[in-house]
Every structure is written in C-alpha cells, then in structure tokens.
Amino acid sequence: MGRVSQAQAEENRRRVVDTASRLFREQGTHVSVADLMKAAGLTHGAFYKQFASKEALVDEVTAHAFDEIARRNAAGLERHDGQRDAAQRALIDAYLSVEHRDNAADGCPVAALAIDVARGPEGREARRTYAEGVADFAAFLAPAEAVGGGEGGLARLCTLVGALVLSRATQGSPLSEEILAAAHAALTEAS
User: Fold this and answer.
1) DSSP assignment, residue 170?
2) pTM of the predicted model, to two decimals?
3) 170/134 Cα distance (integer angstroms)
4) How far are the Cα atoms of 30, 59, 80, 173 from residue 91, in angstroms, in the given order?
5) CA gap 62, 64 in Å, rounded
6) pLDDT digit string (tens) for 49-95?
7) Alpha carbons 175 and 115: distance in angstroms, whole number
C-alpha cells in the first residue's frame, strides 16, 4: 500500500479531529484511541502519523470546539443583523432546549469538557484554550451595556452551563425539563 497524499493526510486529520470533537463531548476524553479511530473509519496506527499523543489531540480538539462556538456566535449575530440582544436570545433558546440536552455530541464544549479539562494538568494547552474560550463565550453573552465580558456575561454563561449539566444528569425525570425552563426564565425575563 502506497503513501497517502498530503491532501488525503490533511483530510484524515480533519476527520479524526471532527470525530474526536463529537466523541469527547458525548463520552469524555477517556475515549480510547482505538475506538476513536474506528469511529473515524481509520486504522489505529494512522493516529500516530497524525498526532504526537492523545494529549496533543485533546489540545487540538479543545481549540476546534471553541472555534466552532465563535463561528456559531458570529453567524448568530449575522442572522440577526448585528442585533446582539436578538442573537443572545436565540442562543439562550437553543442552548436551553431539549434538543441540545439530548445531543451532547454536537453540543457545547464548555459543559461537555469541563470535568476532563479540570482533571488535566494545569500546564496543558487544553486548559489554556478552554479558559480563553470560556472568557470569549462570556463576552459574547454580556449584556449590551457591558460588552467586553464582565460579570453579566459570566453569570449568564454559568446559568446556561449549570442548567445544561443538571438537565443532562436528571434526564428521564420531570426535573430535567424544569431545570431548562427555570434557567430560561431567569435569563430572559429581565431582557
């Protein structure tokens, strides 16, 4: 079997990062390399042609996931003609939905990766990227009068993430949807 082209190697890497992004959000970063590569449709040995280590992949996936949030937030602003309040309201509506609760693989990495990042060593690139991503997401959520972050955006983000995590943990009981509704009301009643 011959070597893969540079274009194919780049495509394989992208496929692994996309697959890992979904699996890590759904199952955590403890997913084995073998299971990850099988899900990506590639061989286990191909992993080490693309990444120095699993930790390097976790670093890259964390950055990829937060880039995705930034793109979604920018697209939301564009869809709402730059109207920040409308884009934030649409994000809150989608974030605190049953669909988002039930689809962790495509969901928010802030909620999905928090425990894995917290358990990792302090010097890891994933932790730095996660912290920057959280700060950027909070800045997007800040009320118009406090653009640039601040407590308002952090409080909104904490409410969103906390509600999502609790709702997922109580899924199957009526409490799960009550949590989503209570957080939604808390975030939208004042706006």
Assistant:
1) T
2) 0.89
3) 24
4) 29, 26, 11, 25
5) 5
6) 899 999 999 999 999 999 999 999 999 999 999 899 999 999 999 99
7) 22
